[in-house]
Amino acid sequence: MVIAAGVLLAVATGSHADEAEGRQHTVLSGKHVAFLVGEGFHDGETFMPMAYLVNRGATVSVIGVEPAVVTAYNSEMTAVVDKSVGDVDVADFDALVIPGGQSPDWLRQHDEVITFARAFFEADKPIASICHGPQVLITAGVLEGRTVTCFADVADEVTEAGAHYVDEPMVRDGNLITSRIPDDIPQFSAAIAAALTE
């Protein structure tokens, strides 16, 4: 199943008559978020934050090593990678989201991905990673001295990279937003939206 942002918006939006709810759907209007995705991504950690942001007016682009249709490791869901990291400019985005699954370990083997992630960090733009997502940031060398969380299996690697690991649903340290597991997606998504409105 290929998931498109428009479908996510329709599913997430539903019908809301409340005026406050209507305003909520435009709070991120004009914000452009890159989702860094590769083969073996986690479906919920990708599509749920994506729907949350799109539902609030953000535009999202799925970025990867090259344009392709990639499959989740935990379901038969697929995502369309719109553009390669080499064909986009960090200046065109307001935030970067790195979902978990098996994808981050594969993505970090590509120099252009690491350069892309590091450029977000150097520009002090929000970077949100969940589960195994921090593996990309470890390889990018941007976690030293930062407080982060992640999937428990990645905790030792995060610590070896010089970060302070804490077992919390969501941690924000400067421009870095991290979470552990799918259960943390509500806090993770809300933190991304909050960072985009600051």
Describe this structure as you would to a colleague:
The protein has a single domain (about 1-195), classed as 3-Layer(aba) Sandwich (Rossmann fold), CATH 3.40.50. The protein is about 35% helix and about 20% strand. It has 8 helices and 12 strands. It has helices at about 5-15, 20-25, 45-55, 105, 110-120, 135-140, 155-160, 185-195; strands spanning about 1-5, 30-35, 60-65, 70, 80, 85, 95-100, 125-130, 145-150, 165, 170-175, 175-180. A 7-stranded mixed beta sheet has the order 6-3-2-7-8-12-11, sandwiched between helices. Strands 1-5-4 form a 3-stranded mixed beta sheet.
Provide the fold topology.
Elements: E1 2-3, H1 5-13, H2 19-24, E2 32-36, H3 43-55, E3 59-64, E4 68-71, E5 78-81, E6 83-84, E7 95-98, H4 103-107, H5 111-122, E8 127-130, H6 134-140, E9 147-148, H7 155-160, E10 164-165, E11 170-173, E12 176-179, H8 185-196
Parallel strand pairs: 1-5, 2-3, 2-7, 3-6, 7-8, 8-12, 9-10
Antiparallel strand pairs: 4-5, 11-12
Which word captures the global form? globular
Which secondary-structure class do the elements indicate? alpha/beta
How many discrete domains?
1
Provide the residue-averaged pLDDT. Answer: 91
Helical segment tally? 8
Q: State the share of residues found in helices, binned by percent.
A: 25-40%
Terminal Cα span: 35 Å
